[in-house]
Design goal:
The structure holds 2 protein chains of 2 kinds. Chain A is α+β, with helices and mostly antiparallel strands. Chain A folds into 2 domains: 75 residues, Alpha-Beta Plaits; 68 residues, Alpha-Beta Plaits (2-Layer Sandwich). Chain A is 30% helix and 41% strand. Chain A has 4 helices and 9 strands, in the order E-H-E-E-H-E-E-H-E-E-H-E-E. In chain A, strands 5, 6, 7, 8 and 9 form a 5-stranded antiparallel sheet that branches. Chain A has a 4-stranded antiparallel sheet with strand order 2-3-1-4, covered by helices on one side. The mean pLDDT of chain A is 94. Chain B has 22 helices and 18 strands. In chain B, the strands form 3 sheets. Chain B has a 6-stranded parallel sheet, sandwiched between helices. In chain B, strands 9-8-7-10-11-12 form a 6-stranded parallel sheet, with helices on both faces. In chain B, strands 14-13-15-16-18-17 form a 6-stranded parallel sheet, sandwiched between helices. In chain B, helix 16 links the parallel strand 13 and strand 14. The chains are: A alpha+beta, B alpha/beta. Chains A and B meet through helix 1 and helix 2 of A and loops of B.
Chain lengths: 161, 537
């Protein structure tokens, strides 16, 4: 079972440590964790994707709520939300596969954002499964580096009360 | 006025009258300012015991215990004491000195990242960067420590912040914390449901834990149980909620508890658990146990509900409020047969012991000691075999039974007893420990002497680490390893060195006179009881 926890926290030093420490101590999984300031500079939003059984998922919600720096926890499933992940890939190319790479980018709506004679950086912004799929599509092409943001998510408008 | 003065003023506002601690350069501004105050200081001999002493004080007074130590090793030494308080939800403020703000992170002399290191053992922690924040932080810290599920709060204050000049002191009237609002009142719908279940139940049992003391709900829980004649059992932390010899009380549950208490748990059709975690030592397989019954789980911490056992009726809130509401419910119930069955179990399932006549029998000794103690005395048990014997045979009348239940920290009893005596000077305080635990905290005999704190100390001596020995006896078929305490000192000489009266009891001959001497001699007394190293709990 997979859940997304959108956690509003006080934007204070070591809050990230307190929240990630909780996951480590209680043996909860972190599939991905993204943190950034919200429109209110005193509040940060952490988006945490985790998986486990029903009891663990409930405990994560409760334990997060118990943390004193946590203001609000929104728990939802992937289907109830809009999720995105940003990925940058640096690949090595040659004349032989350049066309191929560009076609793949076109299919996946990815952009080439930097290029040299031997390397290029591709940007993908999509749902997490499709960013994963994009890596698969580039199999056979030498990927030099990958940087992924992890999932950010908001509950869909129609699901928000 | 500087930051250190502000801390003292805040402590005064919170009605703190004593701090336990140990100085060092990084906390010197604080210990300089405290000279101007009426707050008493107790110089313990190692920092861990400062936290234990504050723990003992908090548990007998219901106030927040305060310990103040220096940076680096001072702070890290305190961690075990903080973790002990955390495991038992004891309200504590631990103030640690810290190196200068500008030097943070540069590994200078006696720097430790204590807020980081203690993170998983505190309810909350602060690193103070500006003295102007001290009043707000102190106000919040006391509030956090002593509300909701109580626990330790750590405040790390760099030396330059303690020395920082401030113009005025204003203690906040109220707390503004949008993210911390503990639930106090129980949900009335759930409370009605519990009342209905009590009416339906043929074999109800209430299991009380340490949370009952923390919410000061002993009286109202007793009132509810007596009103409806519901049998009561307890966890180790709940010992003393009911007097041991109360006809409704059926002992401590768990792998070291009373067989009839466990049987009551097993056969109950309604189990009301209040202020207990249902951890492994109390209930080994909670999901299995709950199959034939309705579980009502009352706790102030929503995380505890459903953590170890799924509750049929979860009820979040303060035990005192919830039981006041429960007492107001109209309930008619009848389960005499059940109570009689439990009485039969109690009569027919005594623990069998075959004491060795050449030694003191710890079971009989502890019983006799409890009868001789004052009704409202505080009994502090350490950890190990002595803890289990204490738990099994100490008779609580109106007093308290303290022990490190969650963490099982050896060496807890003497410093905690010291804190309890400082918090309740009118009460008789007895600490019972083994010779292993005694050697972990015997340095505090000096503190008792220096500050004239009266604690009666009983050491059950068998020259081995008995609990581990017993475990190796059963699990490793007597392949004993690391349990021999040869080299331990002659306790009579230790007592003499600290100018403390000493009593040695070799067997049960003269036990009553020895106990009388222990309790009647003025000041702290050290008593050694020689017990059989082969004895099992």
């Amino acid at each position: 079972m997979k859940k997304i926890y959108s956690v509003l926290v006080e934007n204070r030093p070591s809050v990230l440590m307190k929240v990630s420490g909780l996951f480590a101590r209680r043996n909860f999984n972190i599939d991905s964790l993204v943190v950034g300031e919200t429109d209110d500079p005193e509040v940060s939003c952490m988006t945490i994707v985790s998986s486990g059984d029903q009891r663990t998922m409930e405990q994560i919600d409760k334990q997060l709520n118990k943390k004193i720096d946590v203001i609000k926890v929104n728990t939802f499933e992937e289907r109830e939300s809009i999720t995105r992940e940003l990925m940058l890939l640096k690949v090595k190319y040659n004349k032989g596969n350049r066309r191929d790479i560009m076609e793949n980018c076109e299919i996946m709506n990815a952009n080439i954002v930097d290029i040299s004679k031997t390397h290029m950086i591709i940007q993908v912004c999509d749902v997490p499964e499709r960013t994963q799929l994009f890596i698969k599509m580039l199999q056979g092409i030498s990927i030099v580096e990958v940087a992924r943001t992890g999932t950010v998510a908001l509950k869909k408008c129609c699901e928000t009360k | 006025m500087n930051g250190a003065d502000l801390i003292i003023k805040c402590l005064e506002k919170e009605a703190v009258d004593v701090v336990f601690g140990y100085p060092g350069v990084a906390i010197c501004p604080f210990y300089n300012s405290i000279l101007e105050s009426d707050i008493k200081t107790v110089l313990i001999r190692t920092e861990q015991n400062a936290a234990h002493a504050a723990n003992g004080l908090a548990r007998v007074t219901g106030k927040v215990g305060v310990c103040v130590v220096t940076s680096g090793p001072g702070a890290t030494n305190a961690i075990t004491g903080i973790a002990t308080a955390f495991a038992d939800s004891i309200p504590l403020i631990c103030i640690t000195g810290q190196v200068e703000t500008s030097q943070l992170g540069s590994d200078v002399f006696q720097e430790s990242d204590i807020t980081g290191a203690a993170e998983s053992f505190v309810k909350y922690s602060y690193l103070v960067k500006n003295a102007e924040d001290i009043p707000r932080i102190m106000k919040e810290a006391f509030y956090i420590a002593n509300t909701g599920r109580k626990g330790p709060v750590l405040i790390d204050i760099p030396i330059d912040v303690q020395n920082q000049q401030v113009s005025k002191f204003r203690y906040p009237e109220e707390i503004k914390m949008r993210s911390y609002k503990p639930t106090v009142k129980g949900n009335m719908v759930q409370i009605h449901k519990v009342a209905k279940e009590v009416e339906k139940a043929k074999s109800p049992v209430i299991c009380v834990g340490g949370g009952v003391f923390l919410s000061d709900a002993q009286e109202v829980v007793r009132e509810f149980a007596r009103k409806h004649q519901i049998p009561v059992v307890c966890t180790m932390m709940g010992i003393g909620v009911f007097p041991t010899e109360d006809p409704l009380f059926y002992g401590t549950v768990g792998n070291n508890g009373k067989p009839y208490a466990n049987r009551a748990l097993k056969e109950a059709d309604l189990l009301i658990v209040v202020g207990a975690r249902l951890a492994d030592r109390a209930i080994s397989n909670p999901d299995n146990l709950m199959k034939n019954k309705t579980l009502v789980h009352i706790d102030i911490d929503p995380c505890e509900i459903g953590k170890n056992a799924g509750a049929g009726i979860p009820l979040v809130g303060d035990a005192k409020h919830i039981f006041e509401d429960l007492c107001n419910e109209e309930i008619t119930c009848e389960h005499n047969v059940w109570n009689e069955t439990l009485n039969l179990y109690k009569e027919n399932m005594p623990k069998k012991r075959t004491p060795n006549k050449e030694y003191v029998d710890p079971a009989e000794f502890i019983k006799k000691l409890s009868y001789a103690m004052e009704d409202d005395a505080v009994y502090v048990a350490d950890v190990g075999q002595n803890q289990i014997w204490s738990c099994d045979y100490h008779i609580v009348k109106k007093g308290r039974y303290l022990t490190s239940g969650g963490m099982g920290t050896m060496g807890y009893s003497i410093p905690a007893a010291m804190g309890a005596k400082v918090g309740a000077p009118d009460k008789q305080v007895v600490a019972v420990c083994g010779d292993g635990a005694f050697q972990m905290s015997m340095m505090e005999l000096a503190t008792l002497k220096q500050h004239g704190i009266e604690v009666k100390i009983v050491v059950l001596r068998n020259n081995v680490l008995g609990m581990v020995k017993q475990y190796q006896h059963f699990t490793y078929k007597d392949n004993f390893s690391m349990i021999d305490l040869t080299g331990s000192p002659n306790l009579e000489k230790i007592a003499e060195a600290y100018e403390m009266p000493f009593i040695r009891l070799k067997n049960m001959d003269g036990v009553d006179a020895a106990i009388e001497q222990l309790l009647q001699t003025e000041g702290s007394v050290l008593m050694e009881c020689l017990i059989d190293p082969a004895d099992l709990v």
